[in-house]
Amino acid sequence: DFKYVEVDGEGTIRQYNSVYDDETKVGLLDARVTKPDGAFQLAKKPDAKPESAEVYAVTPVSKLLLLFATKFALLDPSGMGIEMDSDKPGWNDAMNGLPGLLGSGMAETAETWRVADWLATTIKRVDRPVVVPAELDKLINVETSALGDESLDDMAYWETTRKALEKYRSEVKLFFSGEEVELAPVPLVEFLDAAAAKLLAGIEKSKTFTEGTIMPSYFQHVVTDFEYTGFLNFVGQPFVKATAFET
Length: 247
Hints:
This protein has 247 residues and is of the alpha+beta class. It has six helices and eleven strands.
């Protein structure tokens, strides 16, 4: 609810200044930089003092799974591209204006599929559980449920997974709790296979914009219906909640 703004009073919606400096987070990062070992202290128990934080480490496969799950949750309202929700279009500086236009990228979709495919193949071959942060487990559970809910169209799926992503972000904004969950290999592979299938479906859907010849690189999403949230950004523009898009 704090990403989209109405810029002209006539229903033109943009995604401007969607990233901001959180004073508490910046202070913690500054404190970490000054530590002799440079270690990032990323985990602490709830209600504990920041100085009680510990260095939090995970396995490479857990880290890659975290990358995949958070990237997969950025699938756009059309179910095709990966959203540019942090004011930057990935590596391509020539497209710096696209995030403001609610842009998404198909190259990122292909790469996210590639990660899902590799994870599924590897976890199936190794056949061992994967230990992940408890916060990530909750996000994956929502994504798994949404993938299995055939009543959800692309827009409803997007609303469901984006809410889960924002909840995850709020939970780990300062620290991970340090609590962990062991994910069994079989259901995890099933989730990854289902996610990969949805990404492939999005790639095929994108080709309908080119008469089936080639996958487009980028999409813009135009908000066609929205609700005011009652909040304003720092220049007085009203924040809105988008309820319908046109691609």
